[in-house]
Amino acid sequence: MNTLGWTTLRPLQREAIEPVLRGDDALLLAPTAGGKTEAAVFPILTRMAAQRWDGLSVLYLCPLKALRLTRIRGQAIQRIGLSATAGNPGALLAWLQGPAAGTRPGVVVAPPADGAGKADTTVRSGEISAASTPGPAADADITLDYVGSVENAAKVIAALHKGEKRLVFCDSRRLVEQLGARLRERGVTTHLIHASLSLAERRRAELAFAEGRDCVIVSTSALELGLDLGDLVRVIQVNAPLTVAAFLQRLGRAGRRPGTRRNCLFLALREDGLLHAAGLLLAWSRGFVEPVTAPASPRHITAQQLLALCLQEGRVGERTWREWLPLPALAESAPAIAAHLRAQGYLDRDGGMLFIGPEAEQRYGHRHFMSLMAVFTAPPEFTVLHGRDEIGRVDPVLLADRVEGPRLLLLGARSWRVTWTDWKRRRCFVEPAEAGGRAWWLAGGAGRTVVRDLPFDAGRAARG
Fold first, then answer.
1. Which of 198, 249, 189, 193 is nearest to 225 (CA)?
2. Taking residues 206-231, what's their average pLDDT?
3. Do 394 and 409 touch, CB atoms closer than 8 A?
4. What are 350's strand-pairing partners?
5. Pick from 430, 406, 392: nearest CA to 176
6. 23-54, pLDDT tens digit by residue?
7. Under DSSP, is residue 432 helix (H, G, I), strand (E, B) or coil?
8. What is each CA distance from 53 to 44, 100, 171, 387, in whole angstroms?
9. C-beta of residue 137 within 8 angstroms of C-beta of residue 285
């Protein structure tokens, strides 16, 4: 507290104390770095100590992935959700409470952030409909510029705000790599963050950026939330994020220290990106933020949860297992999903009980059914190694297409020459190269932002 100069709790932390200590279900809303984790955890730890809880008593789930737990405990469990942006907080709270909505006390806690615009205060479940968002342009410096190319974007970033820490968001790993390489060519101290860099590379980048001063970190949406980057001064967005909610996450990265303001510089690479950004900012200035909605019929989640339940319990009754699923959207599609899984051999049936079948054993049984624990899977990528050091991962296309001369990769904003590829183990070994590396990932796109991809309200704003 002394080092960082904290003299009081953040607004959300103050207002969350009473309902969390009271045992209410709660949805805590605050901009990025509004202190949401502490607002939930500190009152819970206080109750744990005061009431002498023993055994397993608190779970922090990111995201929600447990079979669903109320049934195991035999009584209601306090549920606390954390979010930075939500256009429908009342509905989101009801979803968080599940079948207990309307029968258990629940509150939305969404105070104005320090120096932010007007927002909703604590209200009861079902009594809130307006969006809870940071205030519009009155408390933020926003600039939109058209630069036309990655090279020009690097030129602008290198020239502006020298001596300050700058966070640059790009919406593809390929664009992160390309921009990072161009900035380093201009002598800018640059660090990169994206999902295909190794954990060690990302940790080094985070630490170097947090300890540096005159430097830039270029990232995908991985840095929208979570990591505290310290005294970050400037936020720069190349093209535009798809949603207002994503923009609010990124905007909240700056202006966190006393005497600073939230800010964002948009650099559009193409005309459609310029239009996209303008529409997004117009929608934001009108107070719009997208609602958070669950899929209407998530059949793949129902299948995954049913298989995981059979794995957890050994066997479950074919007429009673739906009681484990707390969401109507899951339970409604359950009979058809269970019948399909039985027909395909993923489930077996005996005496009215369901259990894991031979097809599920063969497909998911490796490593103790670890792959069944994930709700989604990632496309295959090749691990890139320099000696024994892992640099990251690349799309197989970069290793399989025909090239003239040496095969060069761009990873970590550095060029690498491929010396050997182990196709069986999905590994490739590299040595440093001067320049000319290519970056490519099929998943996640190539950084295009086109008007037809905009949500309806933002698209209508762009048209206007």
1. 249
2. 78
3. yes
4. 353
5. 392
6. 999 999 987 667 888 999 999 999 999 999 98
7. strand
8. 11, 23, 44, 49
9. yes
Among the residue ranges 67-76, 113-122, 344-353, 451-460, the one predicted with the least confidence is 113-122
* Per-residue pLDDT, 131: 35
Phi, psi of 169 (to 5 degrees): -100, 135
**Half-sphere exposure (Cβ direction) of 84: Cα atoms closer than 13 Å:** 18
Q: Phi and psi (nearest 5°) for 436?
A: 90, 5
Determine how many CB atoms are found less than 10 A away from the CB of residue 378. 10
Query: What does each C-alpha distance from 353 to 134, 249, 339 come to in angstroms?
Result: 51, 46, 13
Residues 373-399 have pLDDT tens digits of: 766 667 789 999 999 999 999 999 999
Measured distance between the N- and C-terminal CA atoms of the chain, rounded to whole angstroms: 47
Complete DSSP assignment for 152-219: HHHHHHHHSSTTSEEEEE-SSHHHHHHHHHHHHHTT--EEEE-TTB-HHHHHHHHHHHHH-SSEEEEE
Distance CA 400, CA 407 (A): 10
Asked whether the beta carbons of 279 and 454 are under 8 A apart, the reply is yes
* Structure-token pair, residue 322: 């739906």
Q: 141-176: per-residue pLDDT in tens?
A: 899 999 999 999 999 999 998 888 899 999 899 999
- Output the pTM of the full model: 0.77
Q: Are 409 and 439 in contact (CB under 8 A)?
A: yes
Task: Tell me if residue 33 falls in helix, strand or coil.
Answer: coil
Supply the pLDDT for residue 447: 42
Give residue 191's region: left, alpha or beta (phi > 0; psi -120 to 50).
beta
CA nearest to 316, candidates 324, 330, 360: 324
Radius of gyration for the alpha carbons in the chain, expressed in angstroms and rounded: 25
What are the backbone angles phi and psi of residue 246, rounded to the nearest 5°?
Answer: -65, -40
Domains in the chain, ordered, with CATH? Answer: 11-124 (no CATH), 137-285 (3.40.50.300), 299-365 (1.10.10), 382-432 (no CATH)
**Side-chain half-sphere of 404: how many Cα atoms within 13 Å?**
0
Q: What is the average pLDDT score of the chain?
A: 83
**Amino acid type, 326:** P
At 167, which amino acid appears? L
Residues with Cβ within 8 Å of 200's Cβ and at least 6 positions away in sequence, in order, are 389, 390
